[in-house]
Amino acid sequence: MKIALPILIVLTVILLSYAGYMALSPNGAPTEQTMGNVQRIFYYHVPSAWTAFLLFFINFGASIYYLIKRSPAADIVALVSAEVGVVFCTIVLITGPIWARPVWGIWWTWDMRLTSTLVLWLIYVSYLVLRRFSSSGQTALLAAALAVFGALCVPFVYFSIWFFRTQHPQPVMGGGGSIDPRMLHVLLLNWLAFSCFAFLVCWARYRVEKLQRDVDEAHAMRSLMDLRNRRQQRSA
Amino acid sequence: MNRASDTGRSVSTSQVSAQQTRANLGHPASAVALKMAVQPAKGITRATLLKDLRLEWRSKDAINSMLFFSLLVVVVFSFSFDPSAEESRQIAGGLVWVAFLFASVVALNQTWARELRNQVLDAYRVSPAPPNSLFLAKALGNFVFVAVLEALMTPLFIAFYRLRALGPAWQLPIVAALGTWALVVNGTFFAAMSLRTRSREIMLPLLLFPISIPAILAMVQATTAILTDESSARFWIVLLVSYDLVFTTSCLLLFETVLNAE
Q1: Are A108 and A93 in contact (CB under 8 A)?
Q2: CA B41 to chain centroid
Q3: Which ipTM score applies to this complex?
Q4: What pLDDT, in 10s, does the model give residues A167-201?
Q5: What are the sequence ranges of the domains in chain B?
Q6: Which of A30, A115, A170, B193 is paired with A145 by a 20 to 30 Å CA distance?
Q7: Does A74 touch chain B (CB under 8 A)?
Q8: CA of B195: how far to CAs of A130, A160, B150, B200, in Å?
Q9: For the whole prediction, is pTM greater than 0.95?
Q10: DSSP-assigned beta bridge partners for residue A134
Q11: Which candidate in B178, B201, B217 is best for mutational testing of the A interface (most A CBs within 10 A)?
Q12: 3-state secondary structure chain B
């Protein structure tokens, strides 16, 4: 375990820099004909979105597992994946308008994909708010219940807004759109790099959270022991 | 599995106690007790619901504050655009539901507050009564409150905004009932959840609104579709029905866990 973390860090740094080079240099991904270099933000936008969705899915799985088994580790995984997922979702919501302004001429539009990503972001932010505001003993259970509700809500968000309106470019995968194979290659490379990075951050965050809980538990135990010792002294 | 055996045990214990009550007392009330024991879940739901309705009938706390609140929303909105214009029909659906949504939070917030006094909720938790009947009673009670609010406010909306449904008006009550249930079933659940948090009055809308977004969208779009007759409301009604089914089921599955969260 101790050796795995540095290896993962080195691997992620190499992958991220190589993928970044491929995404930004014309030697890697070709420049898009109509949009020009602005299109290159696509290599950050889409992988971030996929990573965020993956993390939210992990959050759902971990929450279900926690509800069944009540394992504290699953609770930490759920917390960590929601936190990192919200960060990646925020990246998606920031890079989207940066791209949209020169290409569509507007910062934001209430299109299906934008709106549903925003709603997803809102749901998981409310999840984090609940975790922050609930008293420590019950947080895990309440948060797991809310995570299940949030995940159940996702298809409804998707269908309702899909019927509502759509303007976003057709999805690259399975949407009938065509993409240069070199662009697809760079995109997948970036996704791999971003997933590695997300995994690394999650891991670090998991260890911090685990240590924090251990410290809290030790504090609680010590104050209990102090109380008992004092009582014994008094009775003696 | 665990839940089924728990419910089974609770039925048998309350049956035994009811039989004892009948044998010992021979009082007319024992007949009620027996009836409640035979159908414990239904009896508890009905008893809690009637108690809440009676309390509300005597105090009228929730309904008065909701009515006044939504009246304020109507008046404030009337300053932000011309309410008599023909275009107001386009926004009326959204406006009506925003008023009801904010007003229903008032009722939802005090759902469980009453049970915290004198540790009623703790007593309920240690009793063998099935938690879901308590939940259903609370959700039905909130549904009644919000439905009464809607029934009282709708004439006012029609008068203030000169509303007239160009589409099939008989669909409006269906949309209202489904939409209200979508709000109150999740609202009751999240109100129980926010009981265990700091600053619980603020927590409820923070939890409820994001999850309710698809339902709110469906309600608003269905109402607008009916008022303007520009499109069919059928898709939105189907969406509301499935939303209600999915979330009622998950509330019933998870309520016991949330009620007993320690």
Answers
A1: no
A2: 19
A3: 0.78
A4: 555 554 444 456 777 788 888 888 888 888 999 99
A5: 1-38, 47-259
A6: A115
A7: no
A8: 11, 30, 26, 6
A9: no
A10: B197
A11: B217
A12: CHHHHHHHHHHHHHHHHHHHHHHHHCCHHHHHHHHHHHCHHHHHHHHHHHHHHHHHHHHCHHHHHHHHHHHHHHHHHHHHCCCCCCCHHHHHHHHHHHHHHHHHHHHHHCCCHHHHHHHHHHHHHHCCCCHHHHHHHHHHHHHHHHHHHHHHHHHHHHHHHCCCCCCCCCHHHHHHHHHHHHHHHHHHHHHHHHCCECCHHHHHHHHHHHHHHHHHHHHHHHHHHHHHCCCCCHHHHHHHHHHHHHHHHHHHHHHHHHHCCC
Measured between beta carbons, the chain B residues lying within 8 angstroms of A157 are 213-214
Q: Which residue reads 């984090």 in tokens?
A: A128
Interface test with B, best of A149, A154, A163 (most B CBs within 10 A): A149
Place of tokens 């209200």: B180
Minimum distance, in Å, between the CA of residue A44 and any CA atom of chain B? 26
- Cβ burial, residue A211 (10 Å; 0-12/13-18/19+): exposed
Write the residue in B199, B218, B261 that is nearest to A133 by C-beta: B199
Residue A133 sits at the chain B interface (C-beta within 8 Å): yes
What H or E segment, with its residue span, contains residue A109? none
- With CA atoms as reference, the chain B residue closest to A158 would be B214
